[in-house]
Design goal:
This protein is of the alpha/beta class. It is 57% helix and 9% strand. The longest helix has 47 residues, at 176-222.
């Protein structure tokens, strides 16, 4: 049962239900305290120890049924084949065979001839594990895994053994009608057993179906250009972003613990270990104070690039506790600060308001020169050597004055000036793009056309 619970925990994790090692151990202890014959009590024990959020319960219930649907059912009812309500049939063939022939039969052959449902179930489950059935992802793989399981079971050998056994029964003078009945029952048991294998395969596919669909969707959306996203895909992208944020936070928590552990404090280590005769059983490290970075984000929200700005703001504010402060500005031809929106509203709601209610004219031509000049006049003095300025935009300035000198002054005052461009490099400097003029004044200029590139940038930013 422990292996079944651990397999269940793996399925929960694949479904984005976070289960820690401690919670897994609690689940194993709780399972030992209740009877697996009482399915509901067993369900409540695992649910109490493995699930932390109400919105995770539907997925928990779905996976529980897939993993433990057999609890509380008899082996006979579990193995019943849809084509035969009586399940496996016990034949009289074994009683006719000689002791030598019976002992030469494999476990599978004896189980099929005797109609031993419990034995056949154990053989099927063992073959599934030996064939790594838990790694199946697609229905198209079912035939391959079916062959693997039959090879593990020695199915061809068992079929030959059963045929030889039938021939021996005929030579022994078993009445033809009785021999026909044995042959029919054997055929029924063989089909029923193959049905068990097919159900095991279907169950494994169902366990990982949502994970596989989610992974395929995630891979597809992560690499799709922001400019090509439909409204429906933008909604689906929120799920991908939430998953991405959880992974980022987990990684940052680990890095944070490592950062805060400073150099070894020899004096305190010796004092702490006096009780151990001076043997350093417990090490003491000096605490490090981390000076957090301030982030200033300037986001172009014109129709050509607003999706990139949307998801950049989403990621920044999801991990804002890694920075001393995040200040946000949006612009088209004018600059407007929207930091207060993120302080008053939930992130997605604040982003929607930033795209519609900022104190700027949305339906105008992009003017990077005027925007940079406005930032220089109002906010340049607020930058320090702890500030990272991130500018998101395609640099298409409609042939207006670029005022690139502002970027040089920003770079001189700030720690870093990073420009993220939601266009391929081959398009920089073409038409009204001023990126080739702006780029030399930036600490880094990166192509950022999809969520994968954006997440890689944010990852580097916090690390």
């Amino acid at each position: 049962m422990e292996s079944s619970i651990l397999e269940f925990v793996r399925s929960l994790r694949r479904a984005d239900i976070q289960v820690t090692i401690g919670e897994t151990l609690d689940g194993l202890v709780a399972a030992r305290e209740v009877s697996v014959c009482d399915k509901e009590l067993f369900r409540h024990a695992l649910r109490a120890t493995l699930v932390k959020k109400v919105d995770q319960l539907p997925e928990f219930e779905r996976l529980f049924e897939l993993h433990f649907s057999h609890l509380g059912q008899s082996a006979q009812s579990q193995e019943a084949d849809p084509s035969g309500p009586e399940g496996f049939r016990s034949t009289q063939g074994l009683s006719y065979l000689s002791e030598e022939t019976r002992s030469s039969l494999s476990s599978l052959s004896r189980g099929l001839m005797g109609g031993e449902g419990a034995v056949l179930e154990r053989l099927a489950v063992a073959a599934a594990r030996a064939s790594s059935l838990s790694q199946i992802e697609f229905s198209l793989q079912a035939g391959s895994y079916m062959r693997r399981m039959n090879e593990q079971l020695g199915w061809d050998r068992a079929v030959e053994e059963l045929e030889r056994a039938l021939q021996e029964l005929a030579r022994m003078g078993v009445p033809p009608e009785e021999l026909a009945r044995v042959r029919e029952d054997l055929q029924h048991n063989r089909e029923a057993f193959q049905g068990i294998l097919r159900r095991l395969i279907r169950r494994e596919i169902d366990k990982g179906a949502r994970f596989v669909r989610g992974r395929l969707l995630s891979d597809s959306l992560m690499g799709k250009s922001f400019s090509a996203l439909s409204d429906h895909e933008i909604q689906e992208m929120r799920v991908v972003v939430e998953r991405l944020v959880r992974r980022l936070r987990t990684k940052m928590a680990i890095l944070e613990r490592r950062r805060l552990r400073g150099r070894l404090d020899v004096r305190r280590t010796l004092r702490r270990n006096l009780q151990h005769g001076g043997i350093p059983m417990q090490l003491v490290f000096r605490e490090k104070r981390r000076r957090k970075t301030q982030v200033v984000a300037l986001c172009d929200v014109s129709s050509s690039v607003w999706n990139a700005s949307r998801f950049m703001l989403n990621l920044l504010y999801a991990i804002q506790d890694q920075f001393s402060r995040v200040r946000s500005f949006v612009f088209v031809s004018e600059l407007g600060e929207v930091t207060s929106l993120f302080e008053r509203y939930e992130t997605n709601q604040a982003i929607q308001k930033a795209l519609t209610e900022a104190p700027i004219r949305y339906h105008s031509y992009s003017d990077y020169g005027d925007v940079l000049l406005a930032f220089h006049e109002k906010h340049l003095r607020e930058l320090t050597n702890r500030t990272v300025v991130i500018l998101i935009g395609d640099g298409r300035n409609n042939y207006l004055p670029t005022r690139s000198w502002v970027l040089q002054e920003i770079r001189e005052r700030a720690r870093k000036l990073i420009w993220l461009v939601p266009e391929p490099r081959s398009m920089w400097g073409t038409g009204d793009s001023a990126m080739l003029e702006y780029a030399p004044f930036c600490t880094a200029v990166e192509e950022c056309r999809n969520l994968r590139q954006l997440s890689e940038f944010v990852d580097r930013l916090v690390v």
